[in-house]
Amino acid sequence: MLTHNLGYPRIGSKRQLKKACEAYWAGKIPLNDLKKTAEEIRETNWKLQQEAGLDLIPSNDFSFYDQVLDMAFTVGAIPERYHEILTEQKKPEIDLYFAMARGYQKEGLDIIAMEMTKWFDTNYHYIVPEFTKGQQFKLFSTKVLDEFKEAKRLGVHTKPVLLGPVSFLLLGKEKEDGFHRLDLLKQLLPVYIDVLKKLEALNADWVQIDEPFLAMDLGDDEKSAVQWAYGEIKKAVPGLKILLTTYFGSLGDNLGFVAGLPVCGLHVDLVRAPEQLDAVLEAIPPNMSLSLGVVDGRNIWKNDYQASLELISKARDNKQDDRLLIGSSCSLLHSPCDLEEESDEESLSAALKSWLAFARQKVNEIAELRAIAMDSFSAQHKALLEGNKEALRSKATSIQIHKPIVQEAVAGLRPIHGKRKNSFSSRKALQAKHLDLPYFATTTIGSFPQTKEVRQWRSQLKRGILTENQYDDNIKAATEKAIRWQEEMDLDVLVHGEFERNDMVEYFGEKLEGFAFTQNGWVQSYGSRCVKPPIIYGDVSRAEPMTLFWTKFAQSLTDKPVKGMLTGPVTILQWSFVRNDQPRKTTCQQIALAIREEVKDLENAGIHVIQIDEPALREGLPLRHADWDNYLHWAVECFRISASGVEDITQIHTHMCYSEFNDIIEHIAAMDADVITIECSRSQMELLDAFAAFNYPNDIGPGVYDIHSPRVPSTAEMVSLLEKAKAVVPYQQLWVNPDCGLKTRGWEETEEALKRMVDAAKKLRAEMATDVAVS
Ligand SMILES: CN1c2c(nc(N)[nH]c2=O)NC[C@@H]1CNc1ccc(C(=O)N[C@@H](CCC(=O)N[C@@H](CCC(=O)N[C@@H](CCC(=O)O)C(=O)O)C(=O)O)C(=O)O)cc1
Ligand SMILES: N[C@@H](CCS)C(=O)O
Ligand SMILES: [Zn+2]
């Protein structure tokens, strides 16, 4: 049996890559320094996996930004608008690469970035490849070959990783009409074959090709595309061992045709879908190797050795050992790097730490599982198994985990907990009277720039350089400045700015019972941006108010309404590492009850506009359509539980970004938020069509400017977007706001953009007044 890993985190255990990239972008370090950091990270990762005893160590799992962008770069899928960066500007290739990811506003050029979206049901974002009709591909970047050679020089014979051709195309978007992106497979495949032949010439042995779409519902065309592609690959490089990987779900009804593909090995995710093992063993031919993905790449709990060994043993009963591999369920990209970086007992107790495994520990688990499976009688292996059982036993019986009072509260949930007192139309009338807002009311999504200064206060507080009082005074000053500034701008519903929050989920994780947080458990979210997902280990409850102090403080400074700002239960669940000992639904209900208490406290303190953010509601959708209804039902119900404890006069907002609404609009409507603000500007308001087609009754704030770019749109652009919105949604329902929070932006561009946004709203109001006068 071979051991392997599908991919290792590339940010570095101290986020070295983030720091180096950001320094390079700011012109603070030369390219060579950035490359050196990247080399060091790769070497460290390869060596630690080698030392752990893994047989097949991945290469090309490193990325300066994103692995999908890397694939686009490899096959030369570089949209026309970027060509000038190389040809005219003579910039190095990496600048072109970063321009595709981040846009390019320099030296007279203003090129927008490629779109970014969520990677399946994770909190990782990939860059969406752009395709045109008849597009040609060519080997543009040799990164995969270079990294294979680099590892070889270091004495590590790696297993190169490539995103498969069908998934690569399916992840992308057609940029013009008249073709389907899968039509491009014929032009694309020769480049893949070229890469594979070159790898073969370099003596590569196994090559991992990821086709995550194989765990999704596929149509006949998609299945045929896969069959054709892997048939061609087999013909072209018969000697190369292709390991086809699937993850995040079961092969399900795709198993039949996948088992017939001419590949050397198939990897299946046995963490998400252990039940598929029997069917897979039965379906695949004896000469096809099977990789058992038993170590969870999506969570941080220690592996249950006994359970994994049972799966391994079942596989061994059916297949020769030399046809089996043991590995991670998916890439470890979604795990933090190294538990040993956690030394602070206050955030992560010794007991809790003994239940966890981060990427480095997971690599060891893979090696240990093989060792125990091969020789369960050795004293050393028996001790490993016993140690693992003991850790799991201590977790299962810990009094820190189970709180009867929380469990009773969940058991006591009834439909009434998810219902507002009256219908939206009666609520709307009451709220309008109370808030007295104009049409096209303006607001923002919550966060204002999290400047280096603000982040430094937090880091100084942690290091004892600032006292709690000094820290609070600084945050108060920032909040007051933001309130005054919003008043000056004449925004209608103000926000406090979220200066006190490190992150919209981690902040709540730090305040809620049943959550632990890490010092260094960073996971890449997109590019250089990372998040530190909190760990939900026990029953969740609210010990004390979490946002009341800062919301009340902000409201005390102004007569205008200040919007309370909370993260919703589904998003907190989705962006945390969750318990694996109870259904996600139950954990979500517990969080919903905690948020409900916070909402009620805010209302009692006189806050009558409260936003409950749910940007991850769509991301949480199961991979298979058949499972959608069940998820949407409990997810929407949890949102409603959190939102429905208030009086009709209190206006509940929700916010969603990164979402398409067409196929889930009835569930969005069922959330019954008084106002929903959505990311809309990049789609030029197209996302509103779903709301219009549904006759969505409640209020909507379609984002009028993209917050991912420093570019400040003109008032006219925003007016034009609002005109478009007004054409499909009755104006009485419309709000005016940016796409999302402004935490990643600088103050200068934020001030200018919001000033123009308020002007745009005023123009619309003036037009309306004229229209009414004329009619
Ligand atoms: C809305 N988004 C979010 C997602 N997931 C979340 N959990 N949270 C989100 O907001 N998913 C979808 C999107 C993804 N978008 C983003 C946007 C921005 C970031 C981001 O900026 N991340 C920061 C880290 C945020 C954080 O925790 N900051 C800490 C400071 C940590 C730090 O770097 N400290 C420094 C010291 C400070 C200094 O001297 O400058 C240090 O330790 O060295 C805080 O504010 O306290 C990032 O830097 O990547 C993520 C996702
Ligand atoms: N209130 C949050 C939502 C981000 S999705 C913010 O403004 O950053
Ligand atoms: Zn958002």
Mean pLDDT: 96
**Ligand names:** the ligand CN1c2c(nc(N)[nH]c2=O)NC[C@@H]1CNc1ccc(C(=O)N[C@@H](CCC(=O)N[C@@H](CCC(=O)N[C@@H](CCC(=O)O)C(=O)O)C(=O)O)C(=O)O)cc1, 2-amino-4-mercapto-butyric acid, zinc ion
State the end-to-end CA separation.
Answer: 80 Å
CATH architecture assignment name of the largest domain: Alpha-Beta Barrel
- The third-level CATH topology of the largest domain is TIM Barrel
Beta content: 5-15%
Strand order of the largest sheet: 1-14-13-12-11-10-8-2
Structural class: alpha/beta
Shape: globular
Annotation, overall tally of beta strands = 25
Number of helices: 28
Number of structural domains: 3
- Give the biggest beta sheet: 8 strands, parallel
Low-confidence runs: none
What's the Cα radius of gyration?
27 Å
Oligomer: single chain
Query: Percent range for helical residues?
Result: 40-55%
Any idea of the CATH class of the largest domain?
Alpha Beta
